[in-house]
Write the structure tokens for this entry.
Amino acid sequence: MIGRLRSVVLDTRDPRQLAAFYAGVLGGDVEAQDDTWVVLTAPSHGRLAFQLAPEHEPPTFPDPRGSQQFHLDVEVDDVDEAESKVLALGATRVTDAVGEDDFRVYRDPAGHPFCLVFNAGG
């Protein structure tokens, strides 16, 4: 092993807003060092950091000419209940994703894709 993963960092035009969104989804504590760097820390989830990127352009997923770049899988017990909560926090549903037998795809307020995963058998 060379090192340990410290944070997953997401570019965004509004670090505070995106940190608040993911705090609503995952729980944890938000700490803003300044307007350009905000960290969400949750003991069971590690760290997500949000970095100011004034020119951030969200990925064009599921456009086959684009890419997700990356995405987060969030495991939930009740996908319908979780969906209503993430939508209330500002997520949008990706309705043209393929193969949603055990996941549903959304975009966070900055346009990054994430999935609510259910019926996760392993």
Summary: The chain has two domains: 1-54, 61-122. The radius of gyration is 15 Å. The longest helix spans residues 15-26.
